[in-house]
Amino acid sequence: MRVGTVREIKNHEYRVGLTPESARELVTHGHEVWVESGAGQGIGASDADYTRQGAKIVATAREIFEGCEMVVKVKEPQASERAMLREGQILYTYLHLAPDPEQTADLVKSGVTAIAYETVTGPGGQLPLLKPMSQVAGRMSIQAGATALEKAHGGRGVLLGGVPGVMPGKVAVIGGGVVGFNAAQMAVGLGADVTILDRSPDVLERLGIYFEARAKTRFASTANLAESVADADLVIGAVLIPGAAAPKLVTRDMLGTMKLGAVLVDVAIDQGGCFETSHATTHAEPTFVVDGIVHYCVANMPGAVARTSTYALNNVTLPHALAIANLGWKAALQADPYLAEGLNVHAGKVTFEAVATELGYDYVPVSDVLG
After folding, report:
1. Active-site residue flag, 270
2. Would you give the DSSP letter of residue 281?
3. Which of 64, 116, 129, 267 is the 20 to 30 Å CA partner of 300?
């Protein structure tokens, strides 16, 4: 199969779909790999690094979209990229379709077979292709929040770890999954006063055992959530419903109860955000202020640490890319029900139920597509 990867064009997105080492793996298995010139610059990989591993460098993204059977990316295709997709082509990348009707409509119209990293599952309902980026985003959320809390960036002027004789900053983490756990780890490490909220007793027990007295856990009832948000200097939104839009847990009214200059970091922004006042921002302009509360809502947080993120992502995406290239998309999905969960759009049909429900499409089960 001819597999291609392009230079990402989303604002300040420096990751790349295939590392030189991943290209080598595909070539070793008998496939042809095309790479857009400059695609790896953001991770320090030159065109020569790719050619040494057997890949072919091409001048433009259009050549990739026109010439390759499968396109491997990181972020969802932008409008100009979607215009180049074609019927029967395989797109393998993050999509986050539920809050993005324009992208969904374009993918449906194109006839492409779109496999989304974020809905590929694993044993026990795990999301293995989302996990490494969730780990990165969770850890970065504390860095970003700590910076936004600085007075020069519009925040309260609070140092999360405090100093002797001065109380540390208070951090509320909403959601105890991968993002929330990693955010809490970082916040605890800085010496902050950390509270993690979740609705699962099992998650709360696991977090309580892990953190012991270093972080508090709290059931995420409406009242407890409102109280914790009002008391916090920094709130991390770490809520995920796989494939679906995130619930709006922090309302506009809650902002009025918060301390002026407090910070909200919405890690769920890829799925529409879990704060009512959120809208997606970029690394170029990462924050905005609503009712005196600083919002950080960058939709591609891991792109800022592109090298770490790209290699972590390729570790989990490459095995599936190899399976798709070796077997063809249909046989690969038939052989692996976890990978089959990643199919979101095929031949003009929406094949992921949460996306179809959210955006009003007829839902076609993957089992019907695979026959």
Report:
1. yes
2. B
3. 64
